[in-house]
Design a protein that fits this description.
Helix 4 packs parallel to helix 5. The protein contains 14 helices and twelve strands. The chain starts with a strand and ends with a helix. It is 35% helix and 17% strand. It folds into two domains: 138 residues, Rossmann fold, CATH 3.40.50.2000; 192 residues, Glycogen Phosphorylase B (Rossmann fold, 3-Layer(aba) Sandwich). It has a six-stranded parallel β-sheet, with helices on both faces. A six-stranded parallel β-sheet has the order 9-8-7-10-11-12. It has 350 residues and is α/β, with parallel strands linked by helices.
Amino acid sequence: MKILLVRLREIGDVVFTTPSIRALRQRFPDAHLSYIVEPVAAPIVAHNPHLNAVIVAPRRGLVADLALGRRLRREKYDVAIDFHGGPRASLLAWLSGARERIGYDVPGRAWMYTRRVRRPRELRPRHSVENQWDLLAALGIAPPDRSRSAVEMAVDDDAAFAVARRLAEAGVDRSHDIVVVHVSAGNPFRRWPLEHFATLAAALAAGGSTRRVVLTSGPSDRDAAAAVVADARQRLKPDERGRIVACGDFTLAELRALMDRAALFIGGDSGPLHVASTSRAPILGLYGPTLPARSAPWRDPSIRAEAVEVLGLPCRPCDQRVCAPGDFRCLTTIAPEQVAAAAEGLLKRA
């Protein structure tokens, strides 16, 4: 049997499909599994042990997609599963010519599938892993269990070596407790204020001489991360400033390797948090317009993960197109002191 999996766009969404990949391999141990992904999230599945092939599909327009469709059709897939449901993903699933095409019952595109699964349009407090897993029910696969169906991302050996070298060059060794603080977010609705990050980083660094707070960011937020580093150091005593570490940008593969050295990860509901969730590092997530019930780390419950959020806001969750109050209060009112206290609790229990 040949099975084609389609999940385009965001990093976190691709991470959330990895339990389904494992389940399909367990259900069909001899199947050939291929996965279509866009370049930004390709490292998530590049070394997945359950896949036979990863097809990276840059967004180059309809002509390129038609050519990719012809390539897929030549592979003669038996089943195509579209975990995405967007226009491009639906088209690729249909162009594959798979005898059985499973996707969501999306208005205007449902005809592209032979089996359709209902997906309510409202924002439900149900995890994205479970929403995507609904597509597997047609193949006789039982509902997921966090302890047995965790998200996963294989560690790349070259990335692990690069991370070890960069930490060593920054004076960080195995005796240090590394706290990774990610200051980027996919959009302004999920971006905690930079001054809050600086206050948090300084508080954590002041908490112990063995602490090393590593600030990470996406390439587009490099300057913002540098500003947080400078601000945090200014808040510390001269002999404490070296505890704030700047190692430059990390690729997704390097970030995953870094998490195996981390005592704690802190960040907003974005791709890096979900990369962190594929490790055993404790996680403290900052949730603004999104709900932990939908996107909290999906892994063994014995691995510590906590969420910081503002409860009782009538505008939350939202579709992240317009901030109704106009002040992003779901994030801006999360105090650095509150996050620092939660972080200290996780570090002590770890």
